[in-house]
Design brief:
This protein has three domains: about 15-140, Rossmann fold; about 155-310, 3-Layer(aba) Sandwich (Rossmann fold), CATH 3.40.50.300; about 315-455, Helicase, Ruva Protein, domain 3 (Orthogonal Bundle). By secondary structure, it is an alpha/beta fold. The chain has 18 helices and 18 strands. The N and C termini lie far apart (about 70 Å). It is flat and about 80 Å long. Helix content is about 45%, strand content about 15%.
């Protein structure tokens, strides 16, 4: 049992630890929560919060960011180290993109800006109490960035299945949704001693597949001068990740099925079995069964799908775009020494309106393109240029300015209309002042005047 968690079983499913620096707010919240059936323990500093968690099991921790003796971020990190960590809702009146992202990485389930509407807070707490996994909650997000409920649900699934190291996992999702990231999170959350070994089933030649997966003994075939361990053996007690499992050759499907059934395998040319100690995690962006000419045997599919996790498309978690942008910009700053540190509201509006057929991978590429030639702030013109460079040429040879895109819930008929919409908003926000608008858009005054005239705004 971890240092900060009691072994006692909770008598109720609605126990809450309130760690709040503001004594008045703490009293109000405690009274309201008590009326709603919560068993509330209140402390006013970080070390006291950890002391409570040593002796008492709670379902949810409502945590202030600014606490004496130990701040909320450090408390959050220590809570997340436990295998039976409660859900943590971090609240603060001093949130920004950086500490919000840090909190999510550290394991916060929700991050809320004070003041919080009471009905909203109570609704969040009730949902967390109902849906909390009975055991281990993920220690941090393990690289999975997002605050939307669908991402939270995926984290819960990872935490649950990680406790059962022999259960095979099938990850379903579109291209670019982070299936390998989920496989890595399962592996790391499992605490396994072995390594994660990834295999791209589409890239490995069929005639090498068996030898690569199972290994071979000396003399097993021409050129096999020395014995070689296969990937199943190399993974040890870790994880073997079979990406694009739908591309697995039919000749190998029967052999992999037997491995899953017997939890053992044999090197090519060997006359003895070896135990399979690794967990098998597979992934695909295709429908595997139920279609004519299905790529995978039905019996193998059900063996692989001991537990299934679906990675959501970016359009299903569009509210995560700002956090993802912040994450990637930080990455670019470290990797490329980029100046870009933030994305303007207009640029975020354009990003949220895109359909993202390539999902998070496409978003990362668009941001990388946008940062080239941009300063410390990505504006809408940088984003639209990057999006335009990613669009395939229209079949009727229309210029790129005629390609249709979406912005928020409204359809904008062309890239030119996106520009017009942006110019109108900026010009209006500056009360028709040309110089102020030019400074806001980081555009020469003469260029701005020409564009305003071209769009009939001036």
């Amino acid at each position: 049992m971890a240092e900060y968690y009691s072994e006692e079983e909770p008598a109720t499913s609605k126990r809450l630890l309130l760690a709040e620096n503001d004594a008045g707010l703490a009293r109000v919240l405690a009274i309201r929560l008590d009326l709603d059936g919560w068993d509330v323990t209140t402390v006013n500093d970080g070390e006291a919060a950890l002391e409570v968690l040593r002796d008492k099991t709670v379902d949810v921790v409502l945590l202030d960011l600014r606490l004496p003796r130990m701040d909320g971020m450090e408390v959050l990190k220590r809570i997340a180290k436990g295998p039976s960590a409660p859900r943590v809702v971090l609240m603060s009146g001093y949130l920004d993109s950086d500490n919000t992202l840090d909190a999510i990485r550290a394991g916060a389930t929700e991050v809320l800006q004070k003041p919080v509407e009471p009905a909203r807070l109570l609704g969040i707490l009730e949902e967390l109490a109902r849906n909390r996994p009975r055991r281990a909650e993920g220690a941090g997000d393990l690289g999975i960035i997002g605050r939307t409920s669908i991402v939270g649900w995926m984290r819960d699934q990872i935490a649950e299945v990680a406790r059962f190291p022999e259960v095979p996992v099938l990850i379903l999702g579109e291209t670019g949704t982070g299936k390998e990231l989920v496989a890595r999170a399962i592996h790391e959350r499992s605490g396994s001693k072995g390594q994660l070994v990834a295999v791209n089933c589409a890239a490995l030649p069929e005639h090498l597949f068996e030898s690569e997966l199972f290994g071979h003994v000396s003399g097993a075939f021409t050129g096999a001068r020395t014995p070689k361990a296969g990937l199943l053996e190399t993974a040890g007690e870790g994880t073997i990740f079979l990406d694009e499992i739908g591309e697995l050759p039919l000749s190998m499907q029967t052999k992999l099925l037997r491995v899953l059934e017997t939890r053992s395998f044999r090197r090519v040319g060997a006359n003895y079995e070896q135990p399979l100690r690794a967990r098998i995690v597979s992934a695909t962006n295709r429908e595997l069964v139920g279609l004519p000419g299905e790529p995978l045997r039905t019996d193998l599919f059900f063996r692989l799908a001991g537990y299934t996790i679906r990675t959501p498309a970016l359009r299903e978690r569009i509210d995560d775009v700002p956090l993802l942008c912040q994450h990637f910009l930080r990455e670019f700053q470290k990797q490329y020494h980029s100046e870009a540190a933030e994305v303007s509201e207009q640029a975020l509006c354009a990003l949220r309106g895109h359909e993202w057929p390539g999902n998070v991978r496409e978003l990362r590429t668009v941001l990388m393109t946008a940062m080239i030639g941009a300063g410390p702030r990505l504006e809408v013109r940088h984003v639209m240029r990057a999006l335009g460079s990613r669009l395939a040429p229209p079949s009727d040879d229309k210029p790129i300015s005629e390609v249709r895109v979406r912005m928020q819930d409204e359809e904008i008929t062309s890239m030119a209309e996106v520009e017009r919409e942006t110019l109108e908003r900026a010009y209006s926000a500056c009360n028709g002042n040309l110089s102020s608008t030019a400074r806001k858009l980081e555009m020469p005054r003469s260029t701005l005047r020409d564009r305003l005239k071209r769009h009939g705004i001036l």
